[in-house]
Amino acid sequence: MNRETEKAAREQTNAGPQIVDLRDRVPQMADDALNTLLANARRLAETGSKIQRGGAADLIPVIEAQLAERAAAKAAVMAAKKASVKKAKAKVSAE
Questions:
Q1: 28: how many CB neighbours lie within 10 A of its CB?
Q2: Are 62 and 21 spatial neighbours (Cβ–Cβ below 8 Å)?
Q3: Which long-range contacts (CB under 8 A, 24 or more apart) does 34-43 make?
Q4: Could you list the pLDDT tens digit for every one of the 95 residues in the chain?
């Protein structure tokens, strides 16, 4: 939205812009977006203002936990696929 659109929306609804906590959005984000967000949060944790450093410090563990959870889920799926392929090959070999 540009400033004029935001101003018109604010006048119509009598509401200002809403602040969204990124921690709530992390589970719905794509992997590449999470990796970008993590890189930005790490950068801000080192070079940002005091407020940015604090926000980044709160966000980094949430992102890392989500990425680790997704990696574990992918590993489990891959292990299951490998096991099923191995069983199928063994069955074909036995016949």
A1: 7
A2: no
A3: 34/63, 34/66, 34/67, 35/67, 37/63, 38/63, 38/64, 38/67
A4: 577 877 777 777 766 566 668 888 999 999 999 999 999 999 999 999 998 999 999 999 999 999 999 999 999 999 988 888 777 777 677 66
Per DSSP, 14 falls in state T
Q: Tokens representing 2?
A: 């540009």
Q: Nearest Cα to 36, choosing from 59, 13, 54, 11?
A: 59
Tokens for 74?
């992918």
Calculate Rg over the CA atoms of the chain.
Answer: 22
